[in-house]
């Protein structure tokens, strides 16, 4: 018999490993490569710094930091070096640590020297610009002064009445040279954004006794302090006196202005410009050589970076796991405990033998099973197809060890219930194309880091695939392609009432007096296209989808109750079978199972019975005559019998189980009081520890809550399935509105621009509302129906996942 691996979690065993110290590292490494053993922490009271391999973990963490530093520097340099194709298994961790330290020191030195050279280069560039711009100031001033002197001399030799003659010229010429005030100046560059407040502060600090000349630099220059490109201007400030010089210097420092020397003599200016240009060329050559050397170092590192990172990450994980092991008092072996699947016993033993052989250990690792009452972890062997559906179940709660797994049914029921709400084969085809796109680029996307939304969509690519396939199927049943019906499976079974020879889609009275049926043969598959746009379309589809929702809901809830029987039988819990499963299946069947039968009988017989009236008066007046609402003989007697069964089922769920548990507890206590005389005290103490406390009040209250929840939930959950009808109706009506009021309305005009706008608006509305919002809405409602209405009938969901130590699950966060 083939075992269903997904129906119940795999059988687990608690195992103990006694590992010799010399082979401990290799053993844990081989087990991590296998990925089928979940280690238990045997040192929970010790902090991470008190554990045996704390220093090794710290070393690996430091190496991981260096590797992250190398990765950041490679990204900053814009390099994408080729990675080593295969991992070198002979790399020693100690050698790698020394090599990484050397490479880090070399790279830090290269970057520091490069930073100094860049700073010097930026300063020389600014000095070169100051010499150029300020030289233009002084050259222009000399030319103006020479021209003014020439005119003065011409004026003096001419007429004394020249109006351009300076009034204080004679006084200036008679002033002694020692008493003449010599002007000083400061030159440099200042950020353009600070130029205006810089000028204002200079004017106020010197009380206007200064002269400022500015010239903007055409292109942004690299600031020596920040290393970023900044728009700056060259300035020269003229002032008189030592106090003014000190004020100007402090203001320059406050505004981050870089001051540079500027000689007065033109010859010295030219010489300094040549010297600066020469030094800039030399620095640029040195920078290019340094950058080339840095790129070579980073390329060499990048070639091995991925493999080194993987090695360090694995070594750190191995030592972290070794810290979870307890050391024997002789310090010659380590003791490990963990959970593993029973089916993995041979694989684990093989890995232990290989580790002992490779480590040249004289003593093999001892592998033995332990008996415990601790609940094992839950492990389902999934693949990339079933994994997404299992994640949907696990988001509600991880299954208890070996309880029935709803994930098996979710693979079919989840996309089907989604499709019931989303049924349109046109929209389904678009979803199918989207899923094909994700599947076609599967390998590409798996190696990339996607965004949150894209990562979620890619993870559920197989869920989207099944949702689209089922949506196409239900779309054929509803006969809707973007709300347009098609005669795919044959001609309609209806014709025009007034003119039987006229085709149904050309009948003008279809929306008023309706159509008539031709013969007894219905439309071969799905909804007859003649219903679309007719007077009876909405009442008919509402009735159909509402009754279909009830049938689907009652069926799924009965499946959930049946799974509770399989759980109780698997755990050998006869109380749950007789006092939970039996009354629950009777209660649900006598009410909503009966309603489902009435719906099917009404469909088969074509009766006009009012099922609302039947169900309401089944409770209010069970003995009254049904009249026209009677569907079959003996219906009234059957309803009375079902009503009695429903009322009996409630106390059947509530009372017997707590009372029987109380009686069993009392019998257990009575049996324990007459123990065997030869029983030791230690055994007696062990028995006391194994005994569980029993509180009748708590058990009774818990059972009462469970009973009330089921009785009320049977009504509310059945009503909750009507969301299938509501969302299906909303989807169909929205699709019809977009088609008729947007697309067809625009095509009613002869203007091609209006038609184009109509197509665009229709496409955007279909994509944004129907294919995004409606998809998300139907997905969430299907999720609710599975979590609440289906799983609460049998699913405990209080287990914990099996997390084996495996290299395959390590990520960057583990660094």
UniProtKB/TrEMBL annotation:
Matching InterPro entries: V-ATPase_116kDa_su, V-type_ATPase_116kDa_su_euka
Its membrane topology: Multi-pass membrane protein
Gene Ontology molecular functions: ATPase binding; proton-transporting ATPase activity, rotational mechanism
Pfam families named among the record's database cross-references: V_ATPase_I
Localization annotation: Membrane
Keywords: Coiled coil, Hydrogen ion transport, Ion transport, Membrane, Transmembrane, Transmembrane helix, Transport
Recorded GO CC terms: vacuolar proton-transporting V-type ATPase complex; vacuolar proton-transporting V-type ATPase, V0 domain
TM stretches of this protein: 416-440, 461-478, 548-566, 578-601, 636-655, 752-773
Function field: Essential component of the vacuolar proton pump (V-ATPase), a multimeric enzyme that catalyzes the translocation of protons across the membranes. Required for assembly and activity of the V-ATPase.
Membership in a protein family: Belongs to the V-ATPase 116 kDa subunit family.
Protein name, UniProt field: V-type proton ATPase subunit a
Organism of derivation: Marchantia polymorpha (Common liverwort)
Lineage: Eukaryota, Viridiplantae, Streptophyta, Embryophyta, Marchantiophyta
């Amino acid at each position: 018999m083939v075992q269903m691996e997904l129906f119940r979690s795999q059988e687990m065993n608690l195992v103990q490993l006694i590992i010799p110290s010399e082979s401990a590292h290799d053993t844990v490494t081989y087990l991590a490569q296998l990925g089928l053993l979940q280690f238990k922490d045997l040192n929970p009271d010790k902090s991470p710094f008190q554990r045996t391999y704390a220093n090794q973990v710290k070393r690996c963490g430091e190496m991981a930091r260096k590797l992250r530093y190398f990765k950041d520097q490679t990204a900053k340099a814009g390099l994408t070096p080729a990675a080593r194709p295969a991992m070198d298994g002979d790399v020693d961790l100690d050698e790698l640590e020394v090599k990484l330290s050397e490479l880090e020191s070399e790279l830090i030195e290269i970057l520091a020297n490069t930073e100094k050279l860049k700073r010097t280069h930026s300063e020389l560039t600014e000095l070169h610009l100051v010499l150029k711009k300020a030289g233009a100031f002084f050259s222009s001033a000399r030319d103006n002064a020479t021209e003014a002197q020439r005119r003065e001399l011409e004026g003096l030799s001419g007429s004394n009445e020249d109006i351009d003659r300076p009034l204080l010229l004679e006084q200036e010429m008679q002033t002694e040279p020692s008493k003449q005030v010599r002007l000083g100046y400061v030159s440099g560059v200042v950020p353009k954004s600070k130029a205006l407040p810089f000028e204002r502060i200079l004017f106020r600090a010197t009380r206007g006794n200064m002269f400022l000349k500015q010239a903007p630099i055409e292109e942004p220059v690299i600031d020596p302090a920040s290393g970023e490109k900044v728009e700056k201007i060259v300035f020269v400030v003229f002032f008189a006196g030592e106090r003014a010089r000190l004020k100007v210097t402090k203001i320059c420092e406050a505004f981050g202005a870089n001051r540079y020397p500027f000689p007065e003599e033109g010859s010295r200016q030219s010489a300094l410009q040549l010297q600066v240009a020469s030094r800039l060329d030399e620095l640029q050559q040195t920078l290019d050589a340094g950058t080339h050397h840095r790129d070579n170092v980073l390329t060499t590192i990048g070639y091995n970076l991925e493999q080194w990172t993987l090695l360090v990450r694995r070594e750190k994980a191995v030592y972290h796991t070794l810290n979870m092991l307890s050391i024997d008092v002789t310090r010659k072996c380590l003791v490990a405990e963990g959970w593993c699947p029973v089916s993995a016993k041979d694989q684990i033993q093989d890995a232990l033998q290989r580790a002992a052989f490779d480590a040249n250990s004289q003593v093999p690792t001892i592998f033995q099973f332990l008996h415990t009452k601790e609940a094992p972890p839950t492990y389902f062997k999934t693949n990339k197809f079933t994994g997404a559906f299992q994640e949907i179940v696990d988001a509600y709660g991880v299954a208890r060890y070996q309880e029935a797994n709803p994930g098996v049914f979710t693979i079919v029921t989840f996309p089907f219930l989604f499709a019931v709400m989303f049924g349109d084969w046109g929209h389904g085809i678009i979803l199918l194309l989207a899923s094909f796109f994700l599947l076609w680029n599967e390998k590409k996307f798996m190696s990339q880091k996607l965004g949150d939304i894209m990562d979620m969509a890619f993870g559920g690519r197989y869920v989207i695939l099944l949702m689209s396939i089922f949506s196409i199927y239900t779309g054929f049943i509803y006969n809707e392609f973007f709300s347009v019906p098609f005669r795919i499976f044959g001609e309609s079974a209806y014709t025009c009432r007034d003119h039987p020879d006229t085709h149904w889609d050309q009948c003008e009275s279809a929306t008023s007096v309706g159509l008539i049926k031709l013969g007894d043969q219905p439309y071969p598959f799905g909804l007859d296209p003649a219903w679309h746009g007719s007077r009876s379309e909405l009442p008919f589809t509402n009735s159909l989808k509402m009754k279909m929702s009830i049938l689907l809901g009652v069926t799924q809830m009965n499946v959930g109750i049946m799974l509770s029987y399989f759980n109780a039988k698997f755990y050998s819990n006869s109380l749950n079978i007789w006092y939970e499963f039996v009354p629950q299946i009777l209660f649900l069947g006598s009410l909503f199972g009966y309603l489902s039968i009435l719906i099917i009988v009404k469909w088969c017989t074509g009766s006009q019975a009012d099922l609302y009236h039947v169900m309401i008066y089944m409770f209010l007046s069970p003995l009254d005559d049904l009249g026209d609402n009677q569907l079959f003989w003996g219906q009234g007697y059957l309803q009375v019998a079902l009503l009695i069964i429903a009322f009996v089922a409630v106390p059947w769920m509530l009372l017997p189980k707590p009372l029987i548990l109380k009686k069993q507890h009392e019998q257990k206590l009575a049996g324990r009081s007459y123990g065997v005389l030869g029983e030791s005290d230690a055994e007696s103490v062990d028995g006391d520890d194994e005994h569980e406390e029993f509180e009748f009040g708590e058990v009774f209250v818990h059972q009462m809550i469970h009973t009330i929840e089921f009785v009320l939930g049977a009504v509310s959950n059945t009503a909750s399935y009507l969301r299938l009808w509501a969302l299906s109706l909303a989807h169909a009506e929205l699709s019809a509105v977009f088609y008729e009021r947007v697309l067809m309305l625009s095509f009613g005009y002869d203007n091609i621009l209006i038609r184009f706008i109509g197509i665009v608006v229709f496409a955007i509305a279909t994509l944004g509302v129907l294919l995004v919002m409606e998809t998300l809405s139907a997905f969430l409602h299907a999720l609710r129906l599975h979590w609440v209405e289906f799983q609460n009938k049998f699913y405990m969901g209080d287990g914990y996942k099996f997390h084996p130590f495996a290299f395959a699950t390590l990520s960057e966060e583990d660094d």
